[in-house]
Design brief:
The chain is mainly α. The chain is built from 4 helices and 3 strands. The N and C termini lie far apart (37 Å).
Length: 106
């Protein structure tokens, strides 16, 4: 509940980080919690960024493949996206200089 006291600042900062990455504002009303990049060479990009000290993360497995659910069916689009999306740093402490450094590594 403590974080709710600063929710307006947090939302504004997330929108600012999005703008730094993309060069334009997020759609009105949209507050991006993650900054994602879609790349079919996900593993190669992940390795390249982490070797440069950029702490990105691979997207979670699709819901039907998570151990707690493990639904025995295929959802090709969800599986493709789960393998293709990386989350870039999006901490509220990020600076424009840091985002510029990350953007330059693409």
């Amino acid at each position: 509940l403590e974080q709710l006291k600063t929710i307006k600042w947090r939302m504004a900062k997330k929108r600012q980080i999005y703008k730094w990455y993309h060069g334009f504002e997020a759609d009105e009303g949209y507050v991006p919690w993650f900054i994602e990049v879609v790349d079919v060479n996900n593993d190669k990009l992940f390795k390249s960024l982490t070797e440069k000290g950029i702490g990105c993360r691979k997207m979670y497995p699709p819901l039907h493949k998570q151990k707690s659910i493990n639904f025995p069916v295929s959802f090709p689009q969800a599986e493709f996206l789960a393998k293709s999306i990386l989350w870039l740093p999006s901490s509220l402490s990020l600076t424009k200089k840091e985002v510029d450094y990350i953007n330059a590594k693409f």
